[in-house]
């Protein structure tokens, strides 16, 4: 099988020739720039790479490295809109920028690994009427799509890989929390539901406009649509199932139905953390692919149980190796054993794309990344 056939076979819950592999194929299955630099040097490629995700500082691997590792996925990243671009400013200690939504970000100039939020454009908004003063980005801005079809056709032809389309920003729920600031947003969920609904609807409209234009331009080329809404932390979901159904599920349903009614693409949802109790609701909302399985989070480490309960409904894209402890601090042999177990639990019957439990972090030794790859080669055949 070629890469696209292999992934599509697994997405249809059939067993391909081997477990599909995704290391660095998307912004949700990537490698932090520091770990990537060491990996590229080890493999004999250029150490410097463009940044795919400026917030998480995930590298965009060069094509030759992806081919060397036999990665089965390539993601397509939209351009910046033609009416906005990021402008970075430096102070004595920090590098900062304001994104197109007006959220402010900063990272330490010395030793900074990621950008963190320091300002929220709707933090002082008190009611729905004030939202009219806020100018949303244009999801369908033509600049986002300039020359994108030609580029996508070239990638699909040259690689025979599965084509996954990146979103323009965080998901509906996450964006709302970034605009308000986490503390205020979670207070709003209980005290100001009208404002929450209005912000969520505003964000949803931007995403519908974006995906509408994406699918008009590229719908016949895209196999997987990437969406993200982090809904869990280390020990539980961020909101209850009841609150998910109240605020987010109707909007997820609308968004995912729109995507499926305008394309053949499968819906991939990235959500970190302990989201076990939300999984049935995510399935009902229309999620086809769940990314990742954060193995170290509560109720997410029993991959055999997850496969038995939800494997007929979901493809698990990720969960091949724990990125919080085993990958950065385990021995190469412990890494290999972890990979073997996760493939053993998740691969039977298809419905599994091998990827780490999140982006590979900057403190990960190169030898452990290579141990993951070598173990996948050894155990990933059907």
Task: Work out the helicity level.
Answer: 25-40%
Helix- and strand-based class?
A: alpha/beta
What is the level-2 CATH architecture name?
Alpha-Beta Barrel
Q: Any low-confidence stretches, pLDDT <50, length ≥5?
A: none
Measured distance between first and last alpha carbons: 13 Å
* Whole-number mean pLDDT: 97
Q: Regarding CATH, which class? A: Alpha Beta
- Counted up, domains total 1
Strand sequence of the main sheet, in spatial order? 3-8-9-10-11-12-13
Tally of DSSP β-strands = 13
Radius of gyration: 20 Å
- What global shape is seen? globular
Strand fraction equals 5-15%
In DSSP terms (H or I, runs of 4 or more residues), the helix count works out at: 13
CATH topology: TIM Barrel
Major sheet summary line: 7 strands, parallel
Query: What series of H and E elements makes up the topology?
Result: HHEEHEEEEEHEHHHEHEHEHEHHEH
Features:
single chain, 382 residues, alpha/beta, TIM Barrel, seven-stranded parallel sheet, four-stranded antiparallel sheet, 13 strands, 40% helix, 12% strand, globular
Summarize the structure in words.
The relative contact order is 0.14. The chain has one domain: TIM Barrel, CATH 3.20.20. Helix content is 40%, strand content 12%. The strands form three sheets. The protein has a seven-stranded parallel β-sheet with strand order 3-8-9-10-11-12-13. A four-stranded antiparallel β-sheet has the order 4-5-6-7, with no helix packed on it. The chain starts with a helix and ends with a helix. A hairpin with a 4-residue loop joins β1 and β2. The protein is an alpha/beta fold. α7 (193-218) packs parallel to α8 (241-261) and α10 packs parallel to α12 (332-346).
